[in-house]
Design a protein that fits this description.
Blueprint lengths: L6 E12 L2 E12 L3 E6 L5 H6 L9 E6 L2 E2 L5 H6 L1 E5 L10 H5 L1 H5 L6 H10 L16 H13 L5 E5 L7 H17 L3 E5 L3 H7 L2 E6 L2 E6 L1 H5 L4 H21 L2
Parallel strand pairs: 3-8, 3-9, 6-7, 7-8
Antiparallel strand pairs: 1-2, 1-4, 4-5, 9-10
The structure holds adenosine-5'-triphosphate.
Length: 255
């Protein structure tokens, strides 16, 4: 972790309701620059909704979201989204565009197209052969597509990376390798990263800090080592019980 002490992203009393569902309920939180945060919790607890308030895919009913000292609501939408790398589970590559065109789409829309050397460098960042730049998305494996999604998210040189279940659809080996790669990029590029995941093992192994959401609220805010040591309360410990139990069973097998 290379935290500068400066706050990169903060939520102040953020609320979002859909009809009668209180998806996000009074979330107040500050994320220092350079931190890798995992956001975990049961399905429907509000993780994606909270993440989407940062790039304004969701506008809160109340409260403020502040990114790099500017309230996101006051930043022109295109500029805001260019300053944020966003990776989501379904990747959303354009099927009729090559890998290179997909990676360069953000800068191109902004009128600052990237050259072939930059595309190659971005592909290398995510461990893909630059020769893949001319392929179409349907000529890639799921893991390769997700790597292209990460390269695309990094193309505008964002300082913050938001990931919503980025590895959810991948096999465990690919998932592990890509998680390590993203952690490496997070460190090397000095990013601030917020990752939504259902996988507590992934959260514990990748993040500096784990936030647990329940019914729209943050109910635990702990380091991985504190969580493993038993901190965070009942909801957090119910999630930690899964990897703990698996680790015990594996240890028994090796005896
Ligand atoms: N656009 C929407 N319209 C109506 N309800 C919504 C909308 N988006 C989310 N919700 C509801 O808000 C609640 C929180 O949803 P959200 O997607 O943030 O949860 P989550 O923790 O990310 O869930 P999952 O882990 O299943 O992705 C859920 O009850 C969901 O049905």
């Amino acid at each position: 972790m290379s935290e500068s002490g400066e706050t990169a992203l903060s939520f102040e009393g953020v609320c979002k309701q859909f009809g009668s569902v209180r998806a996000v309920e009074s979330v107040t939180l500050a994320i220092p620059s350079g931190q890798f945060v995992a956001l975990v919790g049961a399905s429907g607890s509000g993780k994606s909704t909270l993440l989407k308030t940062v790039n304004r895919l969701v506008d809160p009913d109340a409260g403020h979201v502040v990114l790099q000292r500017r309230e996101v609501a006051s930043v022109p939408l295109a500029r805001l989204r260019r300053s944020i790398g966003y990776v989501f589970q379904s990747v959303g590559l354009f099927p009729h565009m090559t890998v290179a065109e997909n990676i360069g789409i953000g800068p191109r829309i902004a009128g600052e197209p990237v050259d072939a050397a930059r595309i190659s460098a971005l592909l290398e960042l995510v461990d893909l052969d630059p020769g893949m730049s001319t392929r179409m998305p349907d000529e890639l494996s799921g893991g390769q597509r997700q790597r292209v999604g990460v390269a695309r998210a990094l193309a505008s040189e964002p300082s913050i990376l938001l990931m919503d279940e980025p590895f959810g659809a991948l096999d465990p080996v690919t998932r592990d390798a890509l998680g390590e790669r993203v952690l490496d990029l997070h460190r090397r590029l000095g990013l601030t990263t917020v990752m939504v995941t259902h996988d507590m093992t992934e959260a514990l192994l990748l993040a500096d800090r784990v936030l647990v959401m329940e019914a729209g609220r943050i109910v635990a805010d702990q380091t991985p080592s504190a969580l493993v040591a038993g901190a965070g309360g009942a909801a957090a410990q119910a999630l930690v019980a899964v990897p703990r139990h698996q680790a015990q069973r594996l240890a028994e097998l090796s005896q």
